[in-house]
Amino acid sequence: MAVKKPAPKATTASKPKPKASPKKSKRSFGEKVKLFFIKLMLWFFGVSIASVILFKYIPVPFTPLMVIRAIENKVGGKEVYFDHDWEPIDKISMNLQKAVIASEDGTFLSHNGFDFKALQKAYKSNERGRRIRGGSTISQQTAKNVFLWQGRSYFRKGLEAYFTVLIEVIWGKERIMEVYLNSIEMGDGVYGAYAATEHWYRRDASSLTPMQAAGIAAILPNPRKFKATGSSSYINRRKERIVREMRAVGKINYDGK
Fold first, then answer.
1. What's the rounded Cα separation, in Å, for the pair 242 and 235?
2. Which residues of 178-203 are buried (b: 16+ CB within 10 A; e: fewer)?
């Protein structure tokens, strides 16, 4: 009688032990700081470019200067007066557009955001100890008013240059002029062409005469000190000079054709 041998037991293959995961290398403090600043710069570029693109299509509701002026008046116990309404550029008098070009930036239609001759002239004038001149173009003033704070630091000037390049590339001249004329301070608590023409002349922004437009442009260096109507002899002389220079501006053609 044959004896059955017991079947050999199935041997189970021993499972390989899982490899220990390599420990994550810890970043040094310097690497963390570097990574932080890289992320901060990427965030800044993204937000700034998105803001410029947004304001190419929608009105700018308020500017940092408007907020600063309101705080100054509140802290000083003064009445917080704020008048600002958006007016499309096709409803803003061509006389006012010519007046600000004649007064603030004679090469606005031809430069790429910066007038280096004017900057050089302003630098030399300031070096001689004369009245401080800015030399900023309309594009630079628009970039500063819409996106930045007031000041003369090199850091702020660098940001101003950056935003000036952005709006020149993304907005173009007509949009820059539209935003400029709707955002700048044109009186104490008065911002933009619509509010200014109502405040100074009790009329709408489309019907300014050359002299009235020159009156608004003449006070832009210090609109809280000077008056467009009942003006001082200094402002009256500026008005007359601006009217003469408006004739030299000629026809405004923003598309450059």
1. 10
2. bbbbbbbbbbbbbbbbbbbbebbbee
Nearest-angstrom CA–CA distance, 66 and 50? 22
pLDDT of residue 21: 56
1: helix, strand or coil: coil
Tokens of residue 201, six digits? 């002349």
Q: Which residues contact 208 (CB under 8 A, 6 or more apart)?
A: 93, 95, 96, 197, 201, 216
pLDDT at 64: 92
Ranges of residues in the chain with a pLDDT under 50 are 132
Q: Which residues make Cβ contacts (< 8 Å) with residue 216, sequence separation at least 6?
A: 96, 99, 186, 193, 196, 197, 200, 208, 228
Q: Is 15 helix (H, G, I), strand (E, B) or coil?
A: coil
Per-residue pLDDT tens over the stretch 34-79 = 888 899 999 999 999 999 999 999 999 999 999 998 888 888 877 7
Burial 8-31 (b: 16+ CB within 10 A, else e): eeeeeeeeeeeeeeeeeeeeeeee
